[in-house]
Design brief:
By secondary structure, this protein is of the alpha+beta class. The chain is built from 3 helices and 8 strands. The protein has helices at residues 6-15, 51-59, 91-104; strands at residues 20-25, 31-36, 39-41, 44-48, 62-69, 77-88, 122-134, 145-146. Strands 1, 2, 3, 4, 5, 6, 7 and 8 form an 8-stranded antiparallel beta sheet that branches. A hairpin with a 2-residue loop joins strand 3 (39-41) and strand 4.
């Protein structure tokens, strides 16, 4: 399987599937995986944090975020981001991140939030390691492995 370059991985995050699977560590040490929306800004990926995932992130910041796409084995593409989550709770920063998220989802300037949503907390996932696969590139002869 061919791996994505860092630029290809970022492009996949930005234009890839609408949902990702966030895995946190639950209170008993078992994985807790949930589908959710996400967006990238710089090197970090942002997801909202609430409920069990928020409690898990407060206890342990280590996460894995899985994005995948494709219908057949020949067009399967995916990216696994392992990293540390940093909770963003300060209202001005929550608003700034919410405006970026709305803009990336296609909202016009007039539709961007002007106040932070009460109770909204963002988790900034700072990647430590990215592993990728892109079966569409198998014929290109590129080797598999981590995103470079």
């Amino acid at each position: 399987m061919a791996a994505m370059t860092r630029e290809e991985a970022y492009a996949f995050i930005d234009a890839g599937p609408r949902w990702a699977i966030l895995t946190t560590v639950g209170p008993g040490g078992y994985p807790h995986a949930v589908p959710l929306s996400y967006y990238r800004d710089g090197d970090a990926v942002f997801v909202n944090a609430r409920g069990a995932r928020l409690a898990n992130l407060r206890r342990r910041p280590e996460v894995a975020l899985l994005l995948e796409g494709g219908e057949e084995m020949t067009d399967l593409r995916g990216l696994l981001i392992e990293g540390d989550a940093e909770l963003v709770e300060e209202p001005a920063e929550v608003l700034r991140l919410s405006r970026i998220a709305a803009h990336k989802r296609g909202a016009g300037d007039e539709d961007l939030p002007s106040e932070p949503r009460p109770g909204l907390i963002w988790a900034r996932i700072n990647p430590r390691r990215m592993r990728s696969w892109d079966n569409t590139q198998r014929r290109s002869g590129r080797p598999g492995g981590p995103a470079r």
